[in-house]
Design goal:
Layout lengths: L1 H15 L1 H24 L7 H15 L1 H4 L1 H4 L1 H4 L1 H9 L10 E6 L1 E17 L2 E4 L8 E4 L6 E2 L4 E5 L2 H51 L4 H47 L2 E3 L4 E6 L15 E5 L3 E8 L11 E6 L3 E9 L10 E8 L10 E17 L4 E2 L4 E7 L2 E13 L2 E6 L6 E3 L13 E3 L1 H11 L9 H4 L7 H10 L1
Parallel strand pairs: 1-20
Antiparallel strand pairs: 1-19, 2-10, 2-14, 3-9, 4-6, 5-8, 6-7, 8-9, 10-13, 11-12, 11-14, 12-13, 14-18, 15-16, 16-17, 16-19, 17-18
Helix pairs in contact: 1-12, 2-3, 8-9
Main location: other
Keywords: Coiled coil, Signal, Transport
Protein name: Efflux RND transporter periplasmic adaptor subunit
């Protein structure tokens, strides 16, 4: 490599003076031509052409060999720059130290992210069916996309039949209530009759004991007393029957009222109306499609596909950042870790809850990252870490001397590699081309390449670019240094 650098230096030095050399050669060629012209004219007319040419050629060559090739006569004058360089420092060509881009290990925040993608779905869907059948839809109050509160009316059914049934139930309730009053009156009447019969029995018994009464009168009094007591017991049972009838009438009235209330279809939960399938004039039935579908609490999340090898790193509550089509970046959190993995796709379905945003719609595509870890760590450029057969290594630079050091590498984050062990913050490492060096090699550390890359990435798109004339203005004195630098690389 050093010999090649010396050779390139000499070639570029000679090339710098090639126009002067060409001019001197041209002048040397013209001088013998002029000298040979008189001799050619002095030859006899009958002289052979070949002899004249033979005599002329040696004369020309021997006339002035120094003028014919001035570069060979005085090499020092032909390449004064090379002579001065060699005289000034003859060991430069053998002691070229390559310039190598280096970087400093520093503390930085890194993240471990798992890529994912999926579709926006409701966290919980609520289907709304009519709870009475056979009634016509006469009014629709909401449409898909509307936000509703719990208990808000969504649609109305024809309620004429339900109102008539409620009126009938009200009448039955009033009649049952009146039956209780009638039963209570009957109880009072039978109790009075029982008291009277008991009193007649007692009088008949006294007369019988005194000998003034007959046995027939006594028997008649005993029968009347028994009948009165039975009638009183029956009247009390009638009250219980009337109370039961009242309870039944009251239940029927409540059912009629519920059926009437159900002719107004209401939202069971607050949320966002996702779909509406019913139409005016439709007949409510117990089967078929739901009239409305509501996203409970308007919560939309991502059914995110995650590769099976990354499932072990997931935990509920992990932060997520998803890019939703047509919306942009939306933050969220991992709610559910996949419980199963598809045997076909080898993917699991995780649920990522997103922050509330009115622009979110179910069915949109989303892709992004689930952040499983975020911490401060020592980092170096990813290109500085060399993967060996048994371990990872970095080329540490100290006082211009390289030391090959094994390290334990960690997370790769934004072109930076985490160094878990083996390197301290502030140490300098070879940022690129470290594989071409070994311990003990000397280098000239530089960070110009890294600065150029940063500047290139931050240059605006409309910024002017350098012209070829600006980059072609290298002087001949600078050419050997450029060539030596390129050769060392």
């Amino acid at each position: 490599m050093q010999k090649s650098a010396l050779y390139l230096t000499m070639v570029i030095g000679l090339a710098a003076f090639s126009p002067a050399l060409a001019q001197q050669q041209a002048q040397g060629a013209e001088a013998p031509a002029k000298d040979s012209a008189p001799e050619s004219a002095a030859q006899p007319a009958n002289a052979p052409v070949g002899e004249a040419a033979a005599e002329t050629a040696p004369g020309t060559a021997e006339a002035n060999p120094a003028e014919a090739n001035p570069a060979e006569a005085n090499p020092a004058e032909a390449n004064p720059a090379a002579s001065d360089t060699a005289a000034a420092n003859p060991e430069n060509a053998n002691n070229i130290i390559p310039a190598v881009t280096v970087a400093t290990a520093r503390m930085a925040q890194i993240e471990n992210r798992i890529p994912t993608s999926g579709t926006l779905v409701p966290r919980q869907e609520v289907q709304v069916y009519p709870q009475v059948s056979g009634f016509e839809v006469i009014e629709i109050l909401v449409e898909a996309g509307d936000k509703v509160s719990a208990g808000q009316p969504l649609a109305r059914l024809n309620d004429l039949t339900s109102k008539a049934q409620l009126a009938q139930a009200e009448a039955e309730f009033l009649r049952a209530k009146a039956g209780i009053s009638q039963a209570n009156s009957q109880v009072i009447s039978t109790k009075a009759a029982a008291v009277e019969a008991a009193s007649k029995l007692e009088r008949a018994q006294r007369l019988q004991r005194s000998g003034n009464g007959t046995q027939a009168s006594l028997d008649q009094a005993v029968s009347a007393d028994a009948l009165a007591r039975a009638s009183a017991a029956s009247a009390e049972d009638g009250v219980a029957v009337a109370e039961a009838a009242l309870a039944q009438a009251e239940a029927a009235r409540e059912i009629a009222q519920i059926n009437l209330d159900r002719t107004v279809i209401k939202a069971p939960v607050a949320g966002l109306v996702e779909t509406r399938t019913t139409r005016l004039g439709a007949i409510a039935g117990s089967g078929g499609e739901p009239f409305f579908t509501i996203i409970a609490n308007s919560q939309i999340e991502v059914a995110a596909e995650v590769i099976e090898t990354a499932l072990g790193a997931l935990a509920p509550g992990d932060a997520a950042l998803m890019r939703v089509a047509g919306v942009g970046e939306i933050a969220g959190k991992l709610r559910l870790v996949p419980a199963t993995v598809s045997a076909t796709t080898r993917l699991g379905i995780a649920r990522v809850t997103l922050d509330d945003d009115p622009r979110l719609r179910t069915g949109l595509f989303a892709s992004g990252w689930i952040v499983t870890d975020r911490r401060q760590a020592i980092t170096v450029p990813a290109s500085a870490v060399l993967e060996g057969a048994n371990a990872s290594v970095v080329q540490v630079v100290k006082d211009g001397v390289i030391e090959t050091r094994p390290v334990k590498a960690g997370i790769l984050w934004q072109d930076q590699r985490e160094i878990v062990t083996g390197l301290n913050a502030g140490e300098t490492v070879v940022a690129r081309a470290g594989a071409f060096f070994s311990s003990g090699d000397r280098i000239n550390p530089t960070t110009e390449s890294l600065r150029s890359e940063v500047a290139a990435t931050t240059t605006p798109a409309g910024a002017p670019q350098p012209d070829a004339a600006d980059t072609a203005g290298t002087s001949p004195d600078d050419a050997p240094d450029v060539a030596a630098t390129e050769a060392s690389k």
